[in-house]
Amino acid sequence: MSLIELKNLSVAYGSNVVLRNVSLAISQGEILTIVGPNGSGKTTLFRALIGSVNPASGRITRKSDLNIGYVPQRLHIGTTLPITVERFLRIQRNSSWQSCVQALEKAGIRELAQKQVSDLSGGQFQRVMLASALLTQPNLLLLDEATQGLDQPGSADFYRQIEKVRKETNCAVVMISHELHVVMSASDRVICLNGHICCQGTPEIVTSDPEYRALFGTGTGGQLALYRHHHDHVHDENCDHDHSKISEQ
Amino acid sequence: MSLLDDFMVRAILAGIGVAIAAAPLGSFVVWRRMVYFGDATAHASILGVALSLALELSVFLGVVMVALAMAIAVTLLSRREYAMEILLGVLSYSALAFGLVAVSFISGVRIDLMAYLFGDILAVSRADLAVIWLSALAVVGLIAYRWKALLISTLSEELAHANKIDPKREQLILTLTLAITVALAIKVVGALLIAAMLIIPAAAARPISRTPEMMAVLAAVIGASSALIGLCLAYVIDTPAGPSIVCVAAFSFAATNLVSLASKR
Fold first, then answer.
1. Which of A128, A152, B141, B209 is the most buried (most CB within 10 A)?
2. DSSP state of A234
3. Cα(B161)–Cα(A212) distance, rounded to whole angstroms?
4. Closest residue in chain A to residue B166, using alpha carbons only
5. Do A83 and B212 touch (CB under 8 A)?
């Protein structure tokens, strides 16, 4: 049985329909990547999975032991609020010190427990968010553009940590990302979303799909191939295509 | 002690009451960068004074109503194309000006106006004191009751959604407590300096705090001692009471920042 299953799900904010007829099932241990232009409903899809927005129509079936850990889009936490990493983790759920340390260890940042959140680097902070998501020992981990704003080594490190967590806990991982070349190479399955599901399948199938090409251009396909052949040069994220333009169509 | 009898004791108790209500709320004002919002609400209170005098209502009630209306107006209008601080500036000074004009229509209030602008802490009556402390306890109680949800939605709205907290509701609670605090503080420090009592003690507590609770408690300690020392100074060297309290708070802001600078060296 799948961890969570969406059947013909539609979500609307007022009269604005953000998701139309989305059907999707997520099973234990798989890594699923959701790609799509800005405003294509990716974050709304996450909110629907979590249950923080109500669907306009359709059905969501959750396995009884489903436990979701959520790493949101890079948060901007003001430096005026004094709070330690440990407290930051424990305030959201009333976790014990023990489980807090375990989560920090899984995220690879045990030594940051007593640091002030305002003193963390971007990469450190994202790992704190990962630790926070791991606190409840989830079997489904949702990552919403978790590496946005990190540099290439930083984001590669982050994904390695995710891979490690998946191996240790066999949780399913669903991630939204714009870093197509990185996430696609690590995914079992890719869904291309633009209000509805344009296409889905293995990374190879999706990148050769005409609807995907229409959204992202063929340049990305080349990028993916490049990564898969493990060329040793560093690939610049800011290459010839621009995702932000897509949303303005 | 006979010289320090009644009116001085009442003044000190009133000052401490305001400091205690202002500390946790002021921390949120600092964390959420709502400083102008606090200012606008405080300035609007003069309009509230004018209306309650005209309608012969209790000043406290009138100020709460107008402060709430102001806060709601800001929230509703903030979706337009002005930057927030422009909108707040326009509303804040308009409310102050309209308030001053409105007060001028009411005969016999002209002398009192200074008291509402700058506070009249030495004239605090027993009834005023009861209102100040009851509403201060209500403010602190409400914030304490919602503390965790308020903190999480202050950290990040996205985080609040992830924890099934509605950040708009928490914002509303802060708005409500802000209106009450403005109303209880107007007699003590006056409309022009209410925002100072919110911001300065909290900002002074920031560099020496490691947790949010510590910051709120230290802000209360700093605010209360500023009230105490400021009032004593006012009494000894005959300076206006409300501004004296704010001056002491400003010194403590400088002091904690110097201490934290020195300890980082």
1. A128
2. P
3. 30
4. A52
5. yes
**CA–CA distance, B87 with B171 (Å, rounded to integer):** 18
Give ∠ CA B24-B225-B114 in degrees, rounded to 5: 85
Q: Which of A43, A81, A135 to mutate to test the interface with B (most CBs of B within 10 A)?
A: A81
pTM to 2 decimals? 0.77
The verdict on a CB contact (< 8 Å) between A92 and B163 is yes
**Residue whose token pair is 């709460």:** B64
CA B33 – CA B88 distance, rounded (Å): 13
> Searching chain B, which residue's CA lies closest to the CA of residue A53?
B161
Is domain B3-192 classified as CATH 1.10.3470.10? yes
Edge-to-edge strand ranges of the sheet holding A57-62: A16-26, A4-13, A57-62
Are residues B159 and A92, on separate chains, in Cβ contact within 8 Å?
yes
Tens digits of residue pLDDT in B96-154: 899 888 888 876 655 577 888 888 888 888 888 999 999 999 999 999 999 999 999 89
Contact A37, A194 (CB under 8 A): yes
- Contact assignment for A83 to B211 by CB distance below 8 Å: yes
Report the residue count for chain A: 249
Could you give the count of Cα atoms lying within 13 Å of A122 in the half-sphere of its Cβ? 14
Residues of chain A in contact with residue B153, where contact means CB-CB under 8 angstroms, are none
Please report residues of B whose CB lies closer than 8 A to that of A81: 31, 151, 154-155, 212
Is pLDDT larger for residue B265 or for residue B248? B248
Which residue type does B217 have? V
* φ, ψ at A70 (rounded to 5°): -125, 125
- Between positions 81 and 120 of A, the ones with CB within 8 A of B are 81-84, 87-88, 91-92, 116
Q: How far apart are the first and last CA of chain B?
A: 45
Q: Is B214 on the interface with A (CB under 8 A)?
A: yes
Packing angle of the helix pair B167-189, B35-54 (nearest 10 deg): 60
